Amino acid sequence: MRDTMSATYVKKTDQVKVYQPGSQHVVGDGFHVRNLFPSNDLDRELSPFVMLDYAGPTFYPATDTPRGVGEHPHRGFETVTIVYQGLVAHRDSAGNSGVIGPGDVQWMTAASGIVHEELHEKEWAKRGGTLQAIQLWVNLPKSSKMSPPGYQTIVNDQIPVVQLDGGAGSLRVIAGSVGGAKGPAKTFTPIELYDVRLRAGHSMPLQIPNGYNVGLLILSGQASVEGAHRLSEADLAVFASTGESVTIIAEEDATILVMAGEAIDEPVARYGPFVMNTKAELIQAMNDYQAGKMGHLS
Q: How many whole angstroms separate alpha carbon 96 and alpha carbon 39?
């Protein structure tokens, strides 16, 4: 591995920063999360992404009353939920509903405003089990913040899988493209989102467009960036792509979430479940929710 490192290492990765979760808390009563940002003050470094929670893995005992988070609003951004273990049920004020399980993705565009709930699926809750998931918030540009809400359920079978060279593992393309494989998620700004399984002792080249902000979250195992920045479970590596290929090396079998995107160069004003451009817009969002303009769940 050392022989593959060259003088280009400093150019490619001297700006890599590694973060541990900045806070831990419970969302509702069913999602024990470790927050990677904004608790680490990474809004600018990871734009267009504005929030990342890593839920679990947490074992929940059997119950007749599903745990989770009840009715709450969002405006101005998108929520992306990827489930690794367990089953999560969703329902919203736009009439969308569904259940996502291991490998599935829920991509909800709150935009002008939506109200939803996220609960452990009823029958799964009765059995009990381990829940592991991530939720990523993706900012919307000003021109799209007041667009109609949208919803994409992307099941595991719809996500193309790229087999890595030399039996190194596999990469699922959720958004963006790798080689000839294009992810099914529809995005408002250029985004790459991959779910990687990398086998111990193997490596993979990561090619991200020049100038994109990049985050690598380790969900399990250990990996390193160019053999220098060692990452363990729940660590996040952050850097800006130079357009050159960067080598990710698995020290142990590793599951890695790769997020990258073109920054949205606009002011960000945020408060709770709202992400807008100005304080006045946040106040309007709160007033609109209280007035029922984002709908309610029946």
A: 30
